[in-house]
Amino acid sequence: MDSLQDDSLSSTLATQRELAQKIRDFTGIERDFVALKFCTTLDDIPPGVQRYKGKGIYCGMWKEVSNYAAPFYTVPDDHICAGGVSYTGMGQKALPPQLEEIGWSMLIGEGKIYYSRESVTKCQESVPYSFKKAKYFAATVMGRLEEVPKPDVVLFFCNARQLEWLCHAYSFESGELVQGLAGLSLCALVVPHPYISQKPIFSPGDLSGRELARMSDGEMCIAFPFKDIPMLAQNLYRIKKFEDLPKSLLR
After folding, report:
1. Which Pfam families match (predicted)?
2. How far apart are CA 96 and CA 79, in angstroms?
3. pTM listed for this prediction
4. Which residue in 245, 219, 224, 221 sits closest to 235, CA to CA?
């Protein structure tokens, strides 16, 4: 049985490597494609995956994927950002009242992120697909698409042209539009939406999320449920890559 499982895993990862390479060859995206696998219990963590080292922040860990030779898993205790835990299905992280007030003081007011607590709450409640701060997962595995077997969500960090190609490949046969959202934390938008709705979403992210994920000024993030990755890899090569308009139309 172990031998059969090993063969199956090797075959799965070989397929994912091929898909990732096809997408990379067409789009030219240089950053690692970040795969997220949600684990209901710790027993669901794939064999051999090691725990994240130290303390970190969820969206910052996406960039850290590039620093690890293999996928890692993370649990709520690894996180210093309560939002990064609650927004991503790992439950509400309790904070001491004093620390919670410090957090609010950094977040709201003139010249800050939101005007009031009501503004924050309204944004949170406007998210179409959310885990509602409930705990669904004990851990999240993060790694390169080529290394995480059958992940739940895949994140691409890319420029506007590359984003258009990915959206175009998705819409090519489905006829469905790709939605974009902004105004709240990046992890609150691009993690629950593709998992719950099984539809893609893109976002420019938020100030801190962009910094932590080391996104350049021209980058955005688009997230797909893993089920769409084979279709993307195929349809990219079926779409029109560049529009060669008559010069008379370009003024």
Report:
1. DUF169
2. 15
3. 0.93
4. 224
